[in-house]
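$ run holo --ligand "zinc ion" --emit tokens
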Amino acid sequence: MTKSTSAPSHESPEARFLQELATGVPKVQECQACGLHFFQPRTHCPSCKGGVYRWVEMDLLGTIYSYSTIPAKGEQPSYNVVLVDMDEGFRMMSTCPGMQLQADCIGARVQASVDTDSQPTRLVFVEAQ
Ligand SMILES: [Zn+2]
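-- output --
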């Protein structure tokens, strides 16, 4: 029997995304009907509503669309939240750890990176190389 990368209908796309992320290789869904790569994880393609997809390695590059800085509160240090337009065509929200973002960061090229120190593993952004 060949191993299929297509998702059985009982699988939670969100759980699968996190499972793939934990391996250190972020993957996104690719619609088998129209070829769209999409995120957030979901059971059907947001474009053609097709329900058959496979998991493919994510293209890690994107461009900062917007950001905001969340001020420090109590023990919690300040941090940033970024919206990144990925080259694959979807938008992701995460953070650029340790970066002091200013207005000129809009349009900057960034690269997704797997942060295995967080629980659960998360995707963050760093300056593109
Ligand atoms: Zn589709």
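-- notes --
The chain has two domains: 13-57, 61-127.
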